[in-house]
Amino acid sequence: MSTPEHSPLGKHTAYADRYDPSLLFPIPRQAKRDEIGVSEPLPFQGVDIWNAYELSWLDMHGKPVAAVAEFHVPAHSPNIIESKSFKLYLNGFAQEPLANAAALSALLQHDLSRAAGAPVMVHIHAPRTAQHSFADLAGESIDGLPVKIDDYGPPKADYLRTDKNADVVEETLVSDLLRSNCPVTGQPDWGSVQIAYRGSPIDREGLLRYLVSFRTHNEFHEQCVERIFVDVMARCAPERLSVYARYTRRGGLDINPFRSTEKTQPENLRGARQ
Q: Which residues are annotated as a binding site for substrate?
């Protein structure tokens, strides 16, 4: 069954060192989308950007090659790929002889697209030429607000509100206080989140309380970002909205979901905690 409980998460695992696409464990997105009232057509566009920092294989002379990889999984894909299975799959190339990076890229694109159920974009870079931009998410931080908080979950959309009598604004707000937990192991996932919108001004204290209320919530990265997007749209009704989260890496992988009302692609920034 393709549920988190049946994935490799939280289980003793033998680390394969040869190529094995069966290690990838897809999980359907729709079950969690049903919880937040999301169905086709999707109310957002977007992508899940993965960065892999522990990728290696052997050249045809047996010499190891190291690389950094970037993967773009479209939000409209029917499945997410469970992160530990992704790590195990990538680790399987460690002793696999391959002609070159292009051969590896073709395998990765085929296998990941099959698991996700939609085309996955793959970029492989030599470590010293990786094209990451080092910068934190742009926007005005709300973390310094003098807010008393005593609610750490589950997420409370009721905290979200706007001043409907104020002039429409276009602004970008950021917080480094996003924390949620793996739904199987309970391990914490730490992240930064950017909320860019045009509409009635969102109450910043309420937004901060709302984001902190994810602190004990158990849900995958992609699901948390979609929940934030849906809650902000429902409670604040902005004309335009984009939600982008950058999570710290685990097991050599970071996951960075982006959801937006606009046809746009986020920059793959690498923040201070990544």
A: 81-83, 221-222
